[in-house]
Amino acid sequence: MKTFVPKPDQIQRRWLLVDAKAKTLGRLATKIARTLMGKEKPEYTPFLDVGDYVIVTNARYIRTTGAKLEQKLYRHYSGYPGGLRARTLREMLKNHPDRVIEHAVRLMLPKSTLGRHMFKKLRVYADADHPHAAQTPEPLI
Question: What pLDDT was estimated at residue 52?
């Protein structure tokens, strides 16, 4: 038997829409990451990008469990002494709700050129409106 490896013209990509309202952050991020990688498809190949495009709306209204709103920190270090900046999840949801989901999904994708290519197929919007109506996205969750 020979291993099937799909050619680039054989890969069928769909546009999928996810409404993040009242969804738990981690469970939502795992579903999105698996879809971006293409693990839900029968032609999944670890070294190829066979995943679909994902549009996430209502990122502002995600849920978390426990005390994560106050205890979960997003850190950024500039490289200079005293340059460590930290924001809580509550601050991130207030200022940049799209980056919360992007950050969670990015860390679940492969840390390689392929993972960065997969991440480019993710679009996250804070509210319900998005500019991708022409792609006629199907609901994912």
Answer: 97
| Domain membership flag for residue 77 | yes
Q: Is residue 4 part of a domain?
A: no
Categorize the per-residue pLDDT at 136 as very low, low, confident or very high, splitting at 50, 70 and 90: very high
- What residues form DSSP beta bridges with 139? 17
Identify the domain containing residue 44 by its residue range: 13-139
In a domain, 7, yes or no: no
- Structural domain total, the chain: 1
- Reported as a single tens digit per residue, the pLDDT across 4-56 is 899 989 999 999 999 999 999 999 999 999 999 999 999 999 999 999 999 99
CA distance 5 to 128: 37
What CATH number is given to the structural domain containing 125?
3.90.1180.10
Q: At what angle do helices 97-106 and 25-37 cross, to 10 degrees?
A: 60
Taking the C-alpha atoms of residue 127 and residue 131, their distance in angstroms, rounded to an integer, is 12
Contact 13, 53 (CB under 8 A): yes
**Amino acid symbol at 92:** M
* Rounded distance between C-alpha atoms, residue 34 and residue 82, angstroms: 37
Q: Give a yes or no: residue 8 inside a domain.
A: no
- In this prediction the pTM is 0.93
